């Protein structure tokens, strides 16, 4: 039997999440998100704030009619009209909840509500009792609980429970609290409110200081058994506690956090992508659990570790959150183990020398290029493999060019094991490079084709060049790849030259026989 306490997950992506500036969602989009939340087995879905608009009312109504496995909830101020509207929208729900709230901090009571503490207590009693007359499941929230005087908070909670609230939520509305303070607030309420055991207590933390998840978990230690959160942590200002972080913290650190949720964590990625698409809020790459880099490794030491045993650098499996597999991102920090693994994936089997040469070129490319794609590695390997045993090889090329005057090519080539250097002019950098090769090899074939394309996207993409040369009726093609287009062109030309010389030699041999 499990020793862990169950914690309800109350998702407010469709209510507090939608309060993020720019995150408005259509009814159809909200229905799609509600479907995914139900599939994740979220306990409570806060579908909207029914009084806010006819559209919000319709959203709550339609979600209540459609979703059968999760409790559907609507927010309502401490106002009878709000509560009636919420009750109306929830009529079709299998399991409905009215969530009514009022601010309890001195600041909010004085400046925003213009109400005395006694008036707020009366409003709590009136609103919760009214809601209980409409529905059995009533949640009451003390808005700005963390800046509320504790003695007054005890009285408010006591009043709400006496009036029939079944869930008591103590939000850190402005993300002001620290974990110790937040835990202590719950402990204080449990110690000072006689009937506290009659309700389930809930956390609702905002992320203004980046503490929303830590505070929510501290709330569990204080006795809360429901957490309010949103997918991707969206919500008012800096957002709410992120559901995926809470769920995976509880799952991964069950040893330190003895709580369980009903959430099907393999649905997390699907939910995250849907919310991101619908709201247009991209998830930052380094976002915990759902960021593009959450299961990606670029540095060689980490890649080596993950290849040998994933747990060296992964504290949860990618599959557990719905990611197919971890990603070994190839880049300048990668090492030989990861490069060998990538080559195997791409179907290459290289000998030792070719491997070392390709790895050297890959590292050099990594120094110049931000993202290295599979296509880049294929281009390097194909280029290297097809040129490594050739008589003529490019060692170094510098070109000097501009909008005026001739271009200059300063090239070193290896010709039959000897380095040869030429500095040659041309009409543009490619012409200068080709002239240098012609001079060093003392030949003058006709250029029939010169074609360049980018291997991947971006201005730092490698160029792949094709050159076709013709000499005395013999035609050959050469290819070359490099992040410097002129170098790629020179490599292609030299490859074609190698083929042409082989053909020449064959012809001479045939003639001699
Ligand atoms: C912490 C939170 O996330 S709270 C939820 C915040 N979400 C939203 O506000 C989104 C939806 N809101 C809305 O559509 C609108 O604000 C409505 C429909 C609720 C109200 O609109 P309006 O009647 O035009 O009022 P407005 O928004 O300008 O002001 C809010 C009023 O509600 C009062 N109020 C605020 N909270 C509460 C409360 N919990 N209980 C009772 N009254 C409240 C304010 O004091 C103010 O009253 P006043 O008009 O007497 O000064
Ligand atoms: C309405 C309440 C629960 C809220 O969103 C908050 O206090 O942040
Ligand atoms: Mg909130």
TrEMBL record:
Catalytically driven reaction(s): 3-methyl-2-oxobutanoate + acetyl-CoA + H2O = (2S)-2-isopropylmalate + CoA + H(+)
EC number: 2.3.3.13
Keyword Metal-binding included in the entry's annotation: yes
Span of domain Pyruvate carboxyltransferase: 7-269
Gene Ontology CC annotation, any one: cytosol
InterPro entries linked to this entry: 2-IPM_HCS-like (IPR050073), 2-isopropylmalate_synth_dimer (IPR013709), AIPM/Hcit_synth_CS (IPR002034), Aldolase_TIM (IPR013785), LeuA/HCS_post-cat (IPR054691), LeuA_allosteric_dom_sf (IPR036230), LeuA_bact_synth (IPR005671), PYR_CT (IPR000891)
CDD domains, per the entry: DRE_TIM_IPMS
Keywords carried by this UniProt record: Acyltransferase, Amino-acid biosynthesis, Branched-chain amino acid biosynthesis, Cytoplasm, Leucine biosynthesis, Manganese, Metal-binding, Transferase
Ranges for region Regulatory domain: 393-513
Cofactor requirement: Mn(2+)
Gene Ontology molecular function: 2-isopropylmalate synthase activity; acetyl-CoA C-acetyltransferase activity; manganese ion binding
Pathways involved: Amino-acid biosynthesis; L-leucine biosynthesis; L-leucine from 3-methyl-2-oxobutanoate: step 1/4
PROSITE patterns named among the record's database cross-references: AIPM_HOMOCIT_SYNTH_1, AIPM_HOMOCIT_SYNTH_2, PYR_CT
Family: Belongs to the alpha-IPM synthase/homocitrate synthase family. LeuA type 1 subfamily.
Function: Catalyzes the condensation of the acetyl group of acetyl-CoA with 3-methyl-2-oxobutanoate (2-ketoisovalerate) to form 3-carboxy-3-hydroxy-4-methylpentanoate (2-isopropylmalate).
PANTHER family attached to this UniProt entry: 2-ISOPROPYLMALATE SYNTHASE 1, CHLOROPLASTIC-RELATED, HOMOCITRATE SYNTHASE-RELATED
Assembly with partners or alone: Homodimer.
Protein name: 2-isopropylmalate synthase
Gene: leuA
